[in-house]
Design goal:
Number of domains: 2
Largest sheet: none
Radius of gyration: 55 Å
Shape: rod-shaped
Length: 253
């Protein structure tokens, strides 16, 4: 019996020793950083723990392999282009919109002015204005008027005839002095008064035309204001595109 115990001890002792060494090495390996052996290095035993060198960089397992490059799809590429180039169109779109607004405002104003010019017909015949002066000044002074609300209408007409100035001092234009004369409509006086009415009509037409032409500046102001509004709205609506474009430029090469 003693012989069997001695033989068993000598047979199982190396096996137990080997198991103890394996358990010790596994516990140490759990608390150590295992790295690949350098080329040419041959471990002395299969249980040797290889420590990293001081100049060797130890990377996490998930960064040791190289990631595949990012390749966006067709729709993503078009979306990236839109995000990149659409915000840059703010100034061209604002310029185009301002020009369109200015043109849309200019056309009706030009038609309005042209219609006024075509409808306005100024008579330059001296005989027409001579008769007009007789009807407006001398006839009311001599005959008065029927159903006039202004009781001083005839008196004012006579004052207008007295205010006529001509170069010939021998001719009297005052209607209160010549109302019973045979030649109570002096030709020189009527022509001078007719020229006054002609110039008065010309001044009125010129002022009216200048007033209408002043509206030509409205399309310019409208185009500038409209273009500025479109520019600001375009920048505001595309701020998300600019942000996505900036993120894509930083995230993906």
């Amino acid at each position: 019996m003693a012989i069997v115990g001695v033989l068993s001890f000598h047979f199982f002792s190396p096996l137990l020793t080997h198991i103890a060494i394996l358990l010790r090495n596994s516990s140490v390996a759990d608390h150590s950083t295992l790295t690949m052996a350098t080329p040419g290095h041959i471990p002395s035993s299969p249980f040797e723990i290889i420590e990293p060198r001081e100049d060797e960089e130890v990377l996490p397992p998930w960064t040791r392999g190289s990631l595949p490059p990012y390749e966006p799809g067709f729709r993503q590429r078009w979306r990236d282009r839109l995000d990149r180039y659409t915000p840059r169109l703010a100034f061209p779109v604002a310029l185009w919109a301002g020009g369109l607004i200015a043109a849309a405002l200019t056309i009706p104003i030009v038609l309005w002015v042209q219609n006024f010019i075509h409808r306005t017909k100024l008579v330059s015949d001296p005989d027409y204005w001579t008769k007009y002066a007789q009807k407006e000044d001398y006839d009311p002074c001599y005959y008065g008027c029927n159903d006039c609300l202004d009781t001083a209408y005839a008196y004012k007409a006579c004052l207008r005839t007295a205010a006529i100035l001509i170069d010939d001092s021998s001719i009297t234009c005052d209607g209160t002095k010549i109302w019973n004369w045979a030649d109570r409509y002096p030709e020189a006086c009527l022509r001078a008064r007719g020229e006054y009415y002609l110039q008065k009509e010309l001044r009125a037409l010129r002022n009216d035309l200048q007033f209408r032409l002043a509206y030509v500046g409205v399309p310019v102001v409208g185009g500038l204001v409209g273009g500025a509004l479109v520019y600001q709205l375009w920048r505001k609506k595309t701020v998300g595109m600019r942000q996505r474009s900036d993120v894509a430029a930083v995230t993906w090469p």
